[in-house]
Design a protein that fits this description.
This protein has 2 domains: 126 residues, 3-Layer(aba) Sandwich (Rossmann fold), CATH 3.40.50.300; 36 residues, no CATH class. Helices cover 41% and strands 16% of the residues. The chain has 8 helices and 7 strands. The two termini are 23 Å apart. The strands form 3 sheets. The chain has a 3-stranded parallel beta sheet with strand order 3-4-5. Strands 1-2 form a two-stranded antiparallel sheet. Helix 5 links the parallel strand 4 and strand 5.
Length: 191
């Protein structure tokens, strides 16, 4: 996932974005268009407001943090709350808010519900589906949870050891896999 917005550069091969090699893009500009949310909410010391606005300062973008808070399901009264006092679900919503505040075209999510309780997990999934529709985002959502893939995904790619094994609609991949390794993965029998 880190290769898709140049947090890491590939050691071989070429990754294309809009038909151009991503190596041709300025890293900061690419990260504005291809924004990432990590597995654990990586928040900066300070308030919800300062975290939401962090990327907008770098990219010189003017947004209303109250609008972003509303989009991610946080009350505006929470904007001045210190991030050290947030629950896991609230912190992940702030991370998503920071990611969308810069106006990306692509949202990368690296297991964004890992370690969250079931209620927070469903809230984050619903939020992502809502944002994808509202903001017309392309979303890459990494998960090892088959049911989560069904709930949030349209299309899926199964990677094993960094190599593509199979791709297709989530339903086809999970209900009628064409590659034996996919079936083993689904059954938990992959060694």
């Amino acid at each position: 996932l880190r290769l898709l917005n140049r947090l890491d550069d590939p050691t071989k091969g070429t990754i294309l974005y809009n038909g151009e090699p991503i190596a041709a893009y300025d890293g900061q500009q690419l990260r504005r268009e291809v924004s990432m949310v990590f597995q654990r909410a990586e928040l900066f010391p300070g308030t919800v407001r300062s975290n939401i606005l962090w990327g907008t300062t770098i990219h010189r973008i003017c947004v209303d943090p109250a609008d972003i808070a509303e989009m991610v399901g946080l009350p505006t009264a929470m904007l001045d709350k210190d991030v050290s006092r947030l629950s896991g679900g609230e912190a992940q919503k702030v991370s998503i808010g920071r990611a969308i505040a810069v106006g990306p075209k692509v949202l990368l999510l690296d297991e964004p519900t890992s370690g969250l309780d079931p209620t927070s997990t469903l809230q984050i999934e619903e939020l992502v589906r809502h944002l994808v529709k509202r903001l017309h985002l392309t979303c890459v959502f990494v998960t090892h949870d088959m049911e989560q893939a069904r709930r949030v995904g349209d299309d899926a790619i199964l990677l094993i050891d960094g190599k593509k094994v199979e791709e297709g609609s989530v339903d086809r991949l999970l209900n009628n896999p064409r590659d034996g390794r996919t079936l083993k993965f689904i059954r938990g029998q992959l060694r």
